Amino acid sequence: MSNFAKVRPIGYRKGRAACGENPKQRYPIYAIKGGAPTLLEQRDEVARLLADENFNGDVDELLQRADQITAQIDQANARASRLRALQGSVPPGDPQPQGGGGQDQRQQPGMQPDADGNPHPLSVAEAFVRSRALETFRERGFRGESGAVEFRAAPSGTVTTGTQPQQNTRVPGIIPQNPDLPLLVANLLDRQTSDGTTLEYMRDTSGPVSSWNNAAVVAEGADKPKSGPFTFDLISTSLKTVAHWVPITRQAADDNSQLMGYINGRLTYGLELKLDREILTGNGTTQMQGILTTSGIGTYQPPSGNTDAKLITVRKAKTQGELAMYPPDAIVMNPVDWQDIELDTDANGQFRVITTVTDSGAPMRIWGLTVVTSVAMASGTALLGGFRMGATLWERQGITILMTDSHAELFTANTLVVLAERRANVAVHTPQAFVKVTFAALP
User: Fold this and answer.
1) Fewest beta carbons less than 10 Å away: which of 146, 171, 226, 320?
2) Is the pTM of this model over 0.85?
3) Integer Cα distance of 376 and 370 in angstroms
4) Same domain, residue pair 347 and 437
């Protein structure tokens, strides 16, 4: 017999029903008081009654009880969260808490809790230094088989057996997402995960709207015009591997802070910088598909003899993107070109672009566009466009970190190798969403 049979039933109507003589009411609701049933047991019982299509008790009372249990569970969760935050906090100058999880949280990299007492998401470096593989490798004195741990920034793809070949990833369509504030060129794009090593997608080559849009006002009874033709190319490519490694001494590898510095400061940054270059200028064969090397993107350059300032050139290029019916949302340019725009002055020496000079972290924007500066973009040119509408970054895996002592003569030099790699490629499915801008030479 369940705990609910031991408490007073409620929900019967007055009269004979109050004595339990209502033969139609087969599913009474029980008032749960005292503490015999737990909150989870109460939740499960009320949920069962809510899901029962044959329940003919007092529905309003059942709903009220569901609300009460929900509030009690939320309150219990809030108390537990505040308790974790309180136990993990240490005022400045106070000694570290002894024993328990508090001391470990303050000593291990990446273990500091957030405001609610929950550990923050691990970075690539934090995941590596806290991995069991690295711990085992250190216990062996960095000798023997290589130590390796994988941290994926994107979810892993489908794993198949040798008898079941991997399937190509066929992109069914263009899936726009809400834009966010990017820090890198890669963050401007829609980002998805690939399940295989081959990527197939449709590239729209229909041209500007004026070439296929035949919509018109039609008289009653008259034939309606047909729009088109629409043309698409099936693009088949492979995911490309970007990788590099650095040597590191055994002493440095045994220090979590130094090891994380190598992974975050050298390896991860190097991969991100190379990924930006590939997104912009990859040749599409031995490299990733770059947007600037994709046929069909728009171009804008001031007419011969025109010496428009870069600020004005960007505005006119934006208009060209809008006329193509793909409103731009961002522009990528070399830091030198952005410097010229910010320092542009009129005849009175007044800056044309109003910026907060004292706040280096202020968002960079011009003509309503998010500005991303990157040395991956050649000076004198820029890429403007609706990045999420025009291209998708497909990733087979996130960043993978590997360590070994079995490389060339490094074993005898007491040196290890730390390697980082990732696999990805860019699908430029709507070239018309982009405009390559070429600035006029300064007088």
Assistant:
1) 226
2) no
3) 17
4) yes
